[in-house]
Amino acid sequence: MRLTIAHTTQYRYDHPVQYALQQLRLTPKSRAGQAVVSWDIHVDGGREELEYDDHHNNRVALVSFGDGRTEISIRCEGIVETADNSGVVGAHGGYAPLWLFLRSTPLTRAGNNVRKLARQAAGDHSGDLEKLHALSRLIGETVLWETGYTHSATTAEEAIDHGRGVCQDHAHVFVAAARALGIPARYVSGYLMMDDRVEQDASHAWAEAHVDGIGWIGFDVSNGISPDERYVRVATGLDYTEAAPISGLRLGESPERMLVTLQVQQ
User: Fold this and answer.
1) Which residues form the signal peptide (predicted)?
2) Same domain for 239 and 160?
3) Residue 246's closest CA among 73, 94, 96, 13?
4) Residues in Cβ contact with 215 at an 8 Å cutoff, skipping those fewer than 6 apart
5) What is the predicted pLDDT for the residue at 252?
6) b/e sequence 152-184, b meaning 16+ C-beta within 10 Å
7) What pLDDT does 6 receive?
8) What is the CATH number of the domain that holds 108?
9) The pLDDT of residue 93
10) Can you give the residue range of the structural domain that contains 56?
11) Which residue ranges of the chain lie beneath pLDDT 70?
12) Residue 251: its pLDDT value, please?
């Protein structure tokens, strides 16, 4: 499938910003199941300082914004060819060793809630793949998809407490529970072409786990499936903070408003 993506993030400030530095993880990866045909990033109000591949093999652009800006815009657009591999990404790659994906982070630390889900998912299942599919179903039943209950700093434990959350929370809970089962897992940010709309409110997130003999496999808890040809992988990390599309810092105390427009279509 050939997907066309147009994604704009606009920041507005009540007072001029003295200085801002942003990391952009907005370039899709050409890997098993997808090939980037074309991709461009345009920044209005700033300049690209450098570009590099991080330890997760994410393409990162470091962008600075000079003094006096009250509006900053980042637009990326391109075409990606995708295939349905039933969620299988395959062999581990990149610079980070596989054992690193067993390490917890503040957002994915396994407490009583996560460990309980992990034990329930393991149940009578002997194989890792069966456990992971059971875990995905169980999280979807335990943390219902609903906005307004969580935010970008909500932990896996807190999301289970709320019983509500969005794709980011589902991915964090899955990653935390998989690691509690001794299975390497990571967070994925990217795009999903929805069947009922072109205009979307935000990009998407899901999780991947590494199974011996198969490699990395994707699990989208929010939609109850493994990623197919409608998905585009962009960045991976131990949690949201390492795979966020845009992250950074700024000087000044002016309130920030963010507007996102996103189109994903065939």
Assistant:
1) none
2) yes
3) 73
4) 88, 89, 90, 91, 92
5) 73
6) eebbbbbbbeeebbbbbbbbbbbbbbbbbbebb
7) 97
8) 3.10.620.30
9) 86
10) 2-82+246-265
11) none
12) 79
